[in-house]
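Backbone geometry:

***
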Amino acid sequence: QVQLVESGGGLVQPGGSLRLSCAASGNIFRVATMYWYQQAPGKQRELVAQISSRDYTTYADSVKGRFTISRDNAKNTVYLQMDNLKPEDTAVYYCRLTYVSREYWGQGTQVTVSS
């Protein structure tokens, strides 16, 4: 069983930055693909970024050039560095882990971008 715990959310002004963290328990982190999703009020959950076990990364068009996903296998942690934040980035951010047929989600962390 894997548990994912997100942290780092909060209130930030437009143009500001936040770094989200997602710490995983267990021993499959280093071989898993990790994802960050966002879910705005009244909207579906959408993929923001993903990083493979070999550090291949992909991003949603809406965040390219502003967000960076990274991982630290020694700490079983995936990060989402969010720069130049916009009000439309306001959402609950979730991390997800997949490995073969296994899938786990974190509980989410709220990010609010407002002046």
Q: What stands out?
A: The mean pLDDT is 97.
